[in-house]
Amino acid sequence: MFGLVDCNNFYVSCERVFQPRLEGRPVVVLSNNDGCIISRSAEAKALGLPMGAPYFQVKEQLRQQQVQVFSSNYTLYGDMSRRVMHYLGASVPGVEIYSIDEAFLDLSGLERYALPAAGGLDALARRLREGVRARTGIPTCVGVAPSKTLAKLANRLAKQDAGLGGVLYLDTAERWAWALGQVAVGDVWGVGRQYAHKLSAAGIDSAADLARVSEAWARKHLGGVVGARLVRELQGYPCSGGLAPSEDGTLRRQSISCSRTFGRPLREQAFVRGALAAFVARAAEKLRRQGDLAHVLTVFISQSRYGPAADGAGGHSRSAVLTLPLPTSDTRELTARTEQLLARLWEPGAVYTKAGVVLAGLEPPGAQQLGLFTEPAPVAVADGRGARAMAALDGLNARFGRGTVQLAAALPTTSGGPAPWQGQAAWRTPAYTTRLEDLMTVS
After folding, report:
1. 367: helix, coil or strand?
2. How much is the pTM?
3. Of 51, 53, 331, 395, most Cβ neighbours within 10 A?
4. Between vectors from CA 73 to CA 68 and to CA 75, what angle results, nearest 5°?
């Protein structure tokens, strides 16, 4: 049996934990650089504010309807997510963190302990929901079902129907049939927009209709074995093989990226170079934390898609990919390679609004792929001065705060004030839980 815990309007809920006065008021959170709406309270949704709407397009509506606006505070959201997941991990046999605000639960074997007289798994799910709220202040909904796809579907309905009290347990054939009939086929986890149109044209409009098709039909019309597994999951047969295995319940990243929209358009190469140096430093830090080395580096720079480009053809992105001679996690090496790729991509006179780096081809130390005529590097080289320097860099930044020590290439090239590439965050709240200076005081 699987459960899915999903935090309600997570970013908004994190802000409300520290500002209870916002309960019952419309609230939205904006993306990086205060660009688009990425989280809405139920009250904001009722006002018709669409997800992903650019802030400049709805700014007047937000003002007129007195909607509270916040800049994204990912440091706070990440720490609140960690607290939620830690509690869940201590309460059930297994947890798979699906996203910052969602987690699948392994409830197998708990049926014998969650006795029907005590409410069964339904009562257990409600206790988990209450436990998360009591320990973090974050409201959640929980779906429980025999497969991941059904648990996701149950969670969706628990969010939509306030009468369910935030929990839906598909434990009987009647509830199962009712739930499948309530969800449109396009809203089933794993059915994209293209397949939704295709299924609708075939007369399959609901999850119940999809659950009735044969496995052979699904293989032919729904992406082969993936479609067949989806149908089997809707029929209550788990095909995902359980939760994703790892020590902390998270999936090991296959690639690591860092990208940002600039606070203002940039036409100076030195500014874009500094931005990319800051981004690759952040990506390399994540890479070292995972204990891997990167074999492939991708750099991209983008012009605005809302205004004319330098050549009058409209905004576009350019990217370059480099396969490194040897995999590395050294910020200095990756920064030097990033500057080389930027020189290849740069168009004089163009105006850029976004840039980013992607580290891929991740390999653990000592298991990297070598060239045909490459001699294996001795262990002493892998554990030499470069690795010790990066360990010291990470240690100082962990102790005194991110960015305390960084390469000169990532420092602002203007004296005083923030770096020109740093995004806008006019309404960002303090990092209440991770920064001593931002701790709340009670008087």
Report:
1. coil
2. 0.80
3. 331
4. 155
